[in-house]
Amino acid sequence: MTIKTRFAPSPTGYLHIGGARTALFSWLYARKMQSKFILRIEDTDRERSTQASVDAIFEGMDWLQLNYDEKPVYQTQRFDRYAEIIQQLLDEGKAYRCYCSKQRLDDLREQQMRDKQKPRYDQKCRSSDTHQHNDDSNKQDYVIRFRNPKEGVVEIDDLVRGTITIANSELDDLIIARSDGTPTYNLTVIVDDLDMGISHVIRGDDHINNTPRQINIMQALGKTPPKYAHVPMILGADGKRLSKRHGAVGVMQYRDEGYLPHALLNYLVRLGWSHGDQEVFSRQEMIDLFSLEGVNKSPSTFSPDKLLWLNQHYLKTLPLDEIAAEMQWHIKAQQLDISQGPALTEVIKAQRERAKTLVDLVANSRYFYEDFAEFNFNAAKKHFKTATPAILQALHDALADVSEWQESTLHAAIMQVCETMDLKLGKVGPPLRVAITGTAMSPSLDVTLKLVGRERSLARILTAIAFNQAKYA
RNA sequence: GUCCCCAUCGUCUAGCGGUUAGGACACUGCCCUUUCACGGCGGUAACCGGGGUUCAAGUCCCCGUGGGGACACCA
């Protein structure tokens, strides 16, 4: 069998975390099997679908580097094909026109709920219809319903759940075409999955209930359904389905907050899937190791903490230039000019283990590129003491004498000041750090000085001396 | 309400009849240390309940309970 998977989002908003994960699973499965993965835009709901959402989905897929094979398919461009199938179903008596008003349907549903019944269509038009109303000149509004089998059961051989059985008596005659003639979801998916040769449908388990209906339509068409793999939902901290209420759900929001796409992918792949105790996966490992058998059956809760840990992990371990590339967007966003100062990769190397996000990384690295307007209040309060001017002056003089502005020589100069003043590094280092960076946290002093550079460093020490003298005058 | 699905530390999970129930995040103790971090070594913490099946059940079956999902002229 030729394997082919798809991701079929409806463009009614951005690409969210849950969608990204099913896209990832589908993508991984296709890549592992060395087969095709395609993207299909399910935009048949013209009320809610927008071009902005379509673009947002592309942007998200692109950022995560989930590449698809073939051009994206838009369902709105396939209306003729759906109409053809609907007509076929009608001709073969497998579908029928229903003239029930919305009002009647609403009342019916209400009544059934009151009677503690599962709301469903009562098949009023199932038999009365057919021929007399088949004349399209009839002005009366109608929808087209699928004639669902009344007896028997539908068995779904789900690749992650095992066998799921649903009685046809639980299903009703679903609408496959609206009164304006446009096709509905359950019809379009199956036509597309069939036409496109999708072999494995990997989707959220909120679709489990739709699956038997879809299988019935496919069987009415004389076709063999694809294989199904329903992956569990992602829940928020309160155990409810993940939504806006739980904070960031849009994939691009994670870019904005400073996450690396690989960190998000790694987090997502481990949510509902596992390979023994392994937590960290490269892209290639994900592809090689992924399997539907490894997918969990139970829903899982999204943990921002673990995502953050993974992000930090990748910040510490990914190649410097890869991080530098991801960092560009944030450098622009935070309006930092890095043209005057040390090489970005050097700064990343020095700073990477004290940042959890790219936002932090950029924000904490400003002083390498530009002078700061004032000293951090708490840092100055804690480390600038009455003895500070003398210490800084000694450091300034010693550093000014350094011939090669290198880590080893800078370190030696600082140690020398400690020795001549008979002070521990703990007394000398902190004020120097505040003087050079304006804050109480930075890489080790020699590295920091080296990167900030001779001119800037000496000037900042002088500024700090003046600040202290004014303060203690 | 009806139907479908699910159930191991707070969270993500390993486990696929016999384990001192393992790992990771978070939390926490100690060490390292010029700051902040990183790192290293420890610690607290789980099989939802009740019945079976079996020599033996976290693992299999049933019933409860709890949670999630579906029940649209949305996808």
Quick summary:
The protein has helices at residues 17-32, 51-63, 79-91, 102-114, 124-128, 185-195, 211-220, 251-256, 261-269, 283-289, 304-317, 320-333, 344-351, 358-363, 377-383, 388-400, 407-421, 425-437, 445-452, 454-472; strands at residues 4-7, 36-41, 73-74, 95-98, 143-146, 153-158, 162-167, 175-177, 200-204, 227-231, 234-235, 300-301. The protein is mostly helical and 473 residues long.
Task: Give the helix tally.
Answer: 20
Number of strands: 12
What is the structural class?
A: mainly alpha
Distance between the termini: 85 Å
Low-confidence runs of at least 5 consecutive residues? 131-135
Characterize the main sheet.
3 strands, parallel
Q: Determine the mean pLDDT.
A: 93
Strand order of the largest sheet: 1-2-3
Word description of this protein:
The strands form five sheets. The chain has a three-stranded parallel beta sheet with strand order 1-2-3, with helices on one face. 47% of the residues lie in helices and 10% in strands. Strand 1, helix 1 and strand 2 (36-41) form a beta-alpha-beta unit. The N and C termini lie far apart (85 Å). It has 20 helices and twelve strands. The protein is elongated. It is mostly helical and 473 residues long. Helix 17 packs across helix 18 and helix 17 crosses helix 19. The structure holds one RNA strand of 75 nucleotides.
